[in-house]
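Entry 12.
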Amino acid sequence: MPMNTPYLSETEAPTPAEVRSWSDCVVLEFGTDWCGHCRAAQSPIQTALAQNPAWCHVKVEDGPGRALGRSYRVKLWPTLILLKNGQEVERLVRPTDVATLHEALARVHSSA
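Predicted 3D structure (tokens):
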């Protein structure tokens, strides 16, 4: 299955300060193109995001020493950080279920 959007490289990725300045609901996804878990998660992620159009989706390539991934203490791929107004509200690690993703996105979006 092809990846819908590419992961941003380390030079293209936002800085932690830029992420904190975001004012929207954002799914910050950490992973790589070659990761089997990342590839398997793409269909459920895209389906859940299609059901929740208020969310922006930013994919960041992660790896050892990558500043943004380390700032969020990412250990496994894919890791989805759900941000609201630049703050982490929820985290999903290796998501595979559309319903779980949809519920998390809806819950965070409707939170105060």
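Annotation: The beta strands are 25-31, 56-61, 79-84, 87-93. The first strand starts at residue 25 and ends at 31.
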